[in-house]
Each structure stands twice: as C-alpha cells, then as structure tokens.
Design brief:
Layout: H1 4-25, H2 31-42, H3 47-75, H4 79-96, H5 103-119, H6 124-151, H7 157-177, H8 184-194, H9 197-202, H10 209-213, H11 215-238, H12 244-262, H13 271-274, H14 283-298, H15 322-345, H16 353-365, H17 372-393, H18 401-418, H19 424-440, H20 453-476
C-alpha cells in the first residue's frame, strides 16, 4: 500500500514521537536523548544492523560514563589536566572509531564522556546522576525503536540478505545470457552487491531461522560467489573466452541460485547438480560448484561438513587503514585544542555547550572529505530556518502532549520522506534534519517548557563556529594523498 520510503518515514516518526512522549511522562529531564537514540538507529541499513548499533551505543554510553566519572574525580580542580586528558582520550577514541565492527561504540564513548562531564558541572554526584539518566534515555530509545520496527512492516535479516543477493545474481544472469564478452562495469556492480553480505551475516540474525540454522555455510556460499567473480575477472583480463557449453552451464547454475534468492530461500537446489562428481573444467565452474554445495548444506539438503558452531566474534582490526585513522585522530586533536583555546580565551556564549558541540560534531566530520564541511554548512542553514520559524511561531501555542507529538511526527515524517533514498547527501540531510529538529526545539520538551529563541540561535551560531574550526584544522592537516601505482 505504501512505498518503502513512506513506510520507513512512518516508522521513524512514530518511534521518535513515542520515545519523547514516554520520556516526558516519566518526568525525565532530557527527552531528546531518547529521540536522538532512535534517529541514530534508524540510519542503519537493516533492523539487525540497528540492533548491533544499539548494543554498541549502550556499551559506548556505559564506558563514557565511567570515564567521565574518573576524569571528574581526578581533574575537576585542574582544568588544564582535564582538557589535556580529554584531548588525548579524543585522539584515541577517534582512532578506534575506525574499527569496522566496534567503531561506533568508541565514537559514542568520546561524546558521552564530554557530555556527562560537562553537564555534571564537574561534580562527581551530578556526573553520576546525569550518566544514569543518559543510560535510561538510551535504553528507552532502543526499546521503542525495536518494538516499532519489529511490529510495523518488519523486515527480517533473511529478507534483507536475499534482497541484496537477488539483484546481484540478476545482473550476473543478464551478462551470461548475452553472447558477447562480460562487461567489467557490470561485474563491479555485482561485486558491490555481494561485498556487504558477509558483514550482514555477522549481525544478529534474530528470528531468521533459515540463516541461523547453518550460518557458516551461508558465509562460505558468499565467499565462493566472490571467488567466482574473481575467476570471471581473471578470465576477462587474460582475454580468454569460455566455450558455449561452459557458459550455458554457468548460466544454468546462476539461474538456479537466482530463483532461490527470489523465493527468499524457500526452495531447494537440484541435488544432482550440487553433488556433481565430475571435476570442473575451469576456475569459474569450480567456484560455482562450491557455491551450490555450500547452499545445499545451508538449506539442510546435504549434511554439514563442518561442526555446528557460531560464527567467530568480529575482530577489532586495530591496524586496518592505520595511516588514515592516525591522520583523523591527529586532525581531531588539533581541532579540539583550537576549540578549547577559543573557549577559554574568548567570551564564547553558551557555557559548556561549545566544547560539547566541538567534540560531537568534529569527531565524525574528520572522517569525511574536506568538501563535506561546506555541504554541512549549507545543509544546516537550509534545515535550521524552518525549525526556528516553527519554534518561534507555532510551538508556543501547542499546550497538549498530543499536539507536541503531532508536531514532531509530521516534521520527522516530512524530513525522512523528503530525503529518502541512497547517496551521501540524502543521508546527511536526513540525519541532520531530524537531529536539528529535536535538539533545537529541546526547550519545548523540558519539564518546564521554555520558548526563548535565543538558546536555539546561540546553538546555531556555535555550530557555525565549530564548522569554521573544523575547516581550519582540516586545511592545516590535509588528508594524505594515495600513493601512485605505476
């Protein structure tokens, strides 16, 4: 009845609205924390990835609270040592944030450490109470997100897996159906479809019994498909072409796998093909034979040749892209030092809000290309103007909880639906638009509502100042150029 983009927008708007209204009904002081938790989880590619991200968020929040208490307990009366420790901790967390599996936990650790220490007013008791509130808000946001996304148009990990696998096999089938040579660009598109699948299988598989039954064989099947692509690319690079009989065999096997993917795994493979005893005549056929064998084992048509153990726990990958991550950590430390110097030496408004925003914005921005700073400036300006107009002219007239809920529901739906789709720009507009809405109107959801627009304008000015500092730091330390390959 609704398009995918409309369904996702409805789910996001409903989850955020419920989380904020529940936090208000509980009498919690920061309802927008629960809303931000839902927004961040909604940016994940699948429900399983969102749950994995939620787990990382909880771990990072807990670790950040512990570190905030430690820093406040030891350096509350020594501001220079406190800021030095924060800069060093920030560099470490930004470097660790490059880990493919646990990076988000370290990113949240840094942000939560700064928020809790600053909002706790350098007092151990206040810091602890603020930390507990942060955990409560995050748990509420994750629980509401899980409930809404599980009940309203749910998408299981198996649906996501086969929806990703199917188009890749379909494009491969179209290439094999032709008489001419395979197109390198088409093979690259197929690889782009298959590359994320191993990571998807490492995420929580929830109720997808089909994938949980023998996950190791699904992993092996995907790896064998990637090996098949490697063999096709090597064959294409060497200039050799398969004979028509071999191409027909490949076409038949890929067609069988495509049918399995389109049926979302609700089917069987011809066991005579999966158990083919003759030795394959080429590397592509050998890889396809492995694909069929692993798929048949994953479906339970053949006995497993491996012990039934869970997939290995994802590694930390401390050295992967080490040079890039080290540059990002160095850039962040430089940006934070400049921001802290400005905060100490100049009468920057907003109190501790400026260092909090410096950490929250610069830690993800240093991972983007420098040109994205200009994009972020334009996006924030375009999104902040309608929010400020509504905050000044509309929100003061909304006196009932249901009216407040309707305000957030409609705005979030419009933002998520308007910027639906793939692409970095649309992702940034969705993320910034939703977060700006709940953060810049936070006065309306306080236990004692406040509609002073000066607070929102101050926040906007501080955002622009942080972007200028980030731009300065990234210009001072430009990213390393890739080495030229002869």
């Amino acid at each position: 009845m609704f398009s995918l983009a409309t369904r996702e927008a409805l789910k996001l708007a409903l989850a955020v609205t419920i989380a904020m209204l529940l936090a208000l009904s509980f009498g919690w002081a920061k309802p927008y924390w629960a809303a931000v938790a839902v927004i961040v989880l909604a940016t994940a590619e699948s429900h399983s990835q969102a749950l994995y991200k939620g787990w990382n968020r909880l771990v990072g929040t807990t670790l950040g609270i512990v570190l905030a208490v430690v820093l406040v307990a030891n350096f509350a009366q020594q501001p220079m040592l406190f800021m030095t420790a924060l800069v060093l901790l920030g560099g470490l967390c930004v470097y660790l944030a490059g880990c493919p599996n646990y990076g988000y936990a370290f990113q949240i650790t840094l942000v939560v450490t700064t928020i809790i220490a600053a909002m706790g007013q350098m007092d151990s008791a206040n810091t602890f109470v603020t930390g507990i509130l942060r955990i409560e808000e995050n748990v509420l946001g994750i629980a509401v997100f899980t409930l809404v996304y599980a009940l309203l148009w749910p998408q299981t990990p198996a649906d996501r897996f086969f929806a990703q696998l199917g188009p890749g096999l379909s494009e491969l089938q179209a290439q094999l159906d032709g008489d001419g040579p395979l197109e390198p660009a088409a093979l690259a598109r197929v690889r782009a479809r298959l590359d994320p699948l191993p990571e998807q299988l490492q995420l929580p598989l929830g109720s997808s019994y089909l994938l949980r039954f023998r996950p190791l064989h699904w992993q092996r099947m995907v790896q064998a498909l990637l090996a098949y692509l490697d063999a096709l690319e090597a064959q294409l690079a060497s200039g050799s072409t398969p004979d028509p009989t071999e191409r027909a065999q490949q076409r038949a096997v890929v067609g069988t796998l495509l049918g399995l993917a389109e049926a979302r795994g609700r089917g069987t493979l011809p066991l005579d093909e999966a158990n083919a005893a003759q030795a394959p005549s080429s590397a592509p056929l050998a890889a396809l034979a492995s694909v069929q064998r692993e798929a048949a084992m994953a479906l339970g048509q053949l006995p497993s040749d491996a012990p039934r153990t869970r997939l290995p726990w994802p590694k930390l990958h401390l050295r992967r892209n080490g040079a890039v991550r080290l540059h990002q950590a160095s850039s962040f430390m430089l940006i934070l030092v400049v921001a802290l110097i400005l905060w100490v030496q100049l009468p920057v408004p907003g109190g501790v809000l400026f260092p909090i925003m410096a950490v929250s914005l610069s830690s993800p921005l240093v991972t983007f290309p420098p040109r994205m700073i200009g994009v972020a400036f334009v996006a924030i300006t375009a999104l902040a103007v309608p929010v400020l107009i509504q905050y000044a002219l509309l929100l003061p007239h909304l006196t009932e909880a249901w009216q407040l809920g309707a305000f957030y529901f409609i705005n979030l739906f419009v933002i998520w639906r308007l910027f639906a789709g793939e692409g970095a720009m649309k992702f940034i507009m969705r993320m910034l638009g939703a977060q700006l809405l709940v953060v810049m109107t936070t006065g309306a959801v306080n236990l004692v509502p406040s509609f002073a627009i000066t607070q929102s304008l101050t926040m906007l000015v501080l955002v622009y100042l942080v972007l200028m500092v980030v731009h300065f730091g990234m210009r001072l330390l430009p990213p390393p150029k890739p080495a030229c390959v002869p």
